[in-house]
């Protein structure tokens, strides 16, 4: 029987809710989304939204900005959106691991529980593998 797909929290922005709506149905199918995980996965969705927004800002405004004429002259500085982009990417990688959202983590979580491991060993011993 299919499980209910929880709705995205309304306190997230539109981009984060879109990420939620795109990924949560798959997580529910893989039995990786429970009510207890709502806020942790929300963190991932917000990080993705921040990554998208900061990446768009850098694409539109460039990686550097001019400080203007000051006592040290006109200097180029990194755009502040680059810091948000880096921090968001780090949060995405950390939270993605919890839900199996990378190939390595998918393989790790897809391997099953210890009970499944012993079932596979027993199948090999019995020759039913």
List keywords for this structure.
129 residues
Descriptive overview:
The chain has 129 residues and is mainly alpha-helical. The chain has one domain. The chain is built from 5 helices and 2 strands. It has helices at 14-29, 38-61, 80-99, 103-110, 114-126, and strands at residues 64-66, 76-78. Strands 1-2 form a two-stranded antiparallel ribbon. It is elongated, with a radius of gyration of 21 Å. The mean pLDDT is 87.
The main sheet orders its strands as: 1-2
User: What percent of the residues sit in helical stretches (DSSP H or I)?
Assistant: 55-70%
What is the count of distinct domains? 1
Instruction: Write down the overall mean pLDDT.
Output: 87
Low-confidence stretches: none
- H-E order: HHEEHHH
Let me know the number of strands: 2
Topology of helices and strands:
Elements: H1 14-29, H2 38-61, E1 64-66, E2 76-78, H3 80-99, H4 103-110, H5 114-126
Antiparallel strand pairs: 1-2
Helix pairs in contact: 1-2, 2-3, 3-4
Short description:
This protein is mainly alpha-helical and 129 residues long. It contains five helices and two strands.
């Amino acid at each position: 029987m299919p499980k209910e797909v929880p709705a995205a929290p309304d306190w997230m922005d539109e981009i984060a809710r879109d990420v939620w709506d795109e990924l949560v149905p798959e997580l529910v199918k893989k039995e990786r989304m429970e009510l207890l995980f709502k806020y942790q996965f929300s963190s991932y969705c917000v990080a993705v939204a921040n990554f998208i927004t900061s990446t768009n800002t850098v694409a539109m405004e460039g990686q550097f900005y001019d400080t203007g004429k000051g006592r040290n002259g006109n200097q180029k500085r990194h755009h502040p959106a680059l810091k948000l982009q880096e921090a968001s990417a780090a949060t995405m990688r950390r939270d993605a691991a919890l839900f199996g959202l990378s190939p390595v983590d998918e393989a790790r979580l897809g391997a099953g529980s210890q009970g499944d491991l012993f079932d596979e060993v027993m199948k090999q011993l019995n020759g039913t593998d």
